[in-house]
Amino acid sequence: MSTPVSEPILSLLSDSPGSPASPTSSSSSDSYDSLPSSLDSTDSSSSDAEREWKESLQQIELLLTMVLIPYLGKYFGRRCAYWGWARWMHWMYPAVQVVVTDQAAFKGIGAVEAATSL
Known about the structure:
rod-shaped, 0% strand
């Protein structure tokens, strides 16, 4: 049982609410053109989501290259320098012993010093 869909729906889509529009009228084709297409809306929403995703990735990359990598490089560079200095002092002066008494304070101070000049 298929009912024709021409007059009631087209009258809703026409510009004048009181008069039924014929399927070939220009006003009904204009109203069809003004309706958003489901394909267009999903394409625009997916492109918006893709654009936001790329912006988020760019912000994360900027955070890594400008903040985290220099900080971590400075922190681990100082740890390596302290280790090398202790090895060199032990090799050069075997009677002198370098002892770090509080490891947590040593690591904390190293992290603070690495962050001070960034």
